[in-house]
Amino acid sequence: MTKNDFAITPPMGWNSYDYYDTAVTEEQVKANADFMAKHLKAYGYEYIVVDIEWYSNDAATKRDKYQYIPFGDDEIDEYGRFIPSPNRFPSSKGGAGFKPLADYCHGLGLKFGIHIMRGIPRVAAERHLPVYGTDVTAADIADPSSICGWNPDMYGVRDCKEGQAYYDSLISMYSDWGVDFIKCDDICDSWMYRDENFSGWHETRMLHEAIMKSGRKIVLSLSPGPAHIDKAFHYCDNANMWRITDDFWDKWELLKNMFWRCEMWQDHVKAGCFPDCDMLPIGMVGAGFNDERHSNFTMDEARTMMTLWCMFRSPLMIGAELTKLSDEDMGLLTNKTLLSFMEDGFKARQVARDDNHAIWVTEDKLKGKKGLAVFNLSEEDIYLKDYLKEVDAAEFSIEGIEWIDIWTGETVSLSNNSDTVIKPHGVCALAN
């Protein structure tokens, strides 16, 4: 198995974090899986991902003080590997791990994923638990000088054969469970370590090697961002997707900033390797943070987000509670014309950007398919016709093509007399 013989197109699915924070349960995961299988699978959404702290029995019980409880009540096996909390995931009892839940998702025609933290549990080092397949303990391979600044659970893993053996055993266990997707955190970027000594660099390689040894097609996603552009080839050599931003939420300032980030990363998008714009805050989010709300994005802003994510070919991971999606939310997530830009063969680029507007184009030359999007980043109406010269200057031919507005389905003329208005924070997205 080579790295890029799977995840040829950007992974699409659901992640529990934006709605549930650390407290999602098996019943809730199954409910979202059922919804995805019934309503979203046909559009390409297939991954069900359980995010952070699934091994914690007391997650979210001290939310007024901690998001992640220091030395909390966590489940761990005899080899220093976290296992699911049986209180929250009853089917994991008796050493079953996540296999029953993964089997449930597979039975729906979906794929199953989990979040992990970089490193080895601190409690495993404290207890000197053995590293599977070696004659050393967790304390021997743990690097106490390599920690996460915002989560207290882990130490880094030293770059040695016994450290690799730990990661090999970890991925082997996940493979036995039937895991198809791993989101590894505190590994893509660290605000604590700004030099080449950050152990996340070698731990990324160790994770990749362990996945290759397992023989299972496991997508590796790296978080958090912002990813380092000078490490682009490192990410692509070892992972399938990597975050180019810190946590993305439903704020216009964050969305506007993504145009700059996507411009920086657009040349590194290819089959099996996808810079990641982070989860889609569409629908109901924030319940686990005591702030349940419908996304703060207006419809214009949500269309801008979906258009940019799809043209850039970012992974699409829904952050909302799926069972609470409205018809409007579903319309944003299931636009077939827009989603077609995610297919292998499309190559996109940003051809213009300033503080008031941005223009993206994409094309699949073999299929003769094109897309054009003019984004209004300002607070005033703008007119499509005023920006067509910038498209021409980018040597992207638009003449003689019947263009359809992706969001309205209407035919759009690209003549100089076009009176198409683009609302503030909105987009005119076209396809042939």
Automatic annotation (TrEMBL):
Q: Which GO terms describe its molecular function?
A: alpha-galactosidase activity
Keyword Disulfide bond found: yes
Matches recorded under InterPro entries: Aldolase_TIM (IPR013785), GH (IPR017853), Glyco_hydro_27 (IPR002241), Glyco_hydro_b (IPR013780)
Q: Which CDD domains match?
A: GH27
Listed under catalytic activity are: Hydrolysis of terminal, non-reducing alpha-D-galactose residues in alpha-D-galactosides, including galactose oligosaccharides, galactomannans and galactolipids
Enzyme class, top EC level, equals hydrolase
What Enzyme Commission number does this protein have?
Answer: 3.2.1.22
Q: Which UniProt keywords apply?
A: Disulfide bond, Glycosidase, Hydrolase
Question: Which BP terms from GO are recorded?
Answer: carbohydrate metabolic process
Which family is annotated? Belongs to the glycosyl hydrolase 27 family.
Entry-linked PANTHER family: ALPHA-GALACTOSIDASE, ALPHA-GALACTOSIDASE/ALPHA-N-ACETYLGALACTOSAMINIDASE
From the Swiss-Prot or TrEMBL record, give the protein name. Answer: Alpha-galactosidase
- This chain's source organism reads Pseudobutyrivibrio ruminis
